[in-house]
Amino acid sequence: xxxxxxxxxxxxxxxxxxxxxxxxxxxxxxxxxxxxxxxxxxxxxxxxxxxxxxxxxxxxxxxxxxxxxxxxxxxxxxxxxxxxxxxxxxxxxxxxxxxxxxxxxxxxxxxxxxxxxxxxxxxxxxxxxxxxxxxxxxxxxxxxxxxxxxxxxxxxxxxxxxxxxxxxxxxxxxxxxxxxxxxxxxxxxxxxxxxxxxxxxxxxxxx
Length: 207
Fold this sequence. Notes:
Blueprint: H1 2-103, E1 105-112, E2 115-119, E3 122-126, E4 129-136, H2 141-151, E5 159-165, E6 176-178, H3 181-191, E7 200-206
Parallel strand pairs: 1-7
Antiparallel strand pairs: 1-4, 2-3, 5-6, 5-7
């Protein structure tokens, strides 16, 4: 009986040992699978990093080529702009004498000895005489009065003059009277462009 108990005890011990061994083997297998998964992930991560590294290198090379092309175009553009600037400066120097002698002057027509009339909402100066005049752009109001009075042979001691002009506009506007330096410069601005040139109508008023 004692031997039977020993045998049973040995078998139970062997079974438990086998179960522990089996459990240990299963745990090792699980650890092995986890390790393989980690290794696989590491290989995948390494491959991804290598691909990203290659991609970044390619992008960097492309960026360098682009920057080099941009710098080349920039240098080329600067050279062309420098050439154009030199040409403009040369042209300016060639035309400087002409511009200094003419472009700082304004020419316009003076109408006098006529009368203003209105027809259909439009104003015009009827009859009279006309003279072409050339004055400096910086001429002021008092100087303009003196110049125009002399041009139309008006004695400033006996008569004063009124200067008016029509502003080029799609709207019907009454004549603008020139009474100060700003008005003179506005009139000059209108006559500095061909499309907006206008006549100066002068009437005399006894003092």
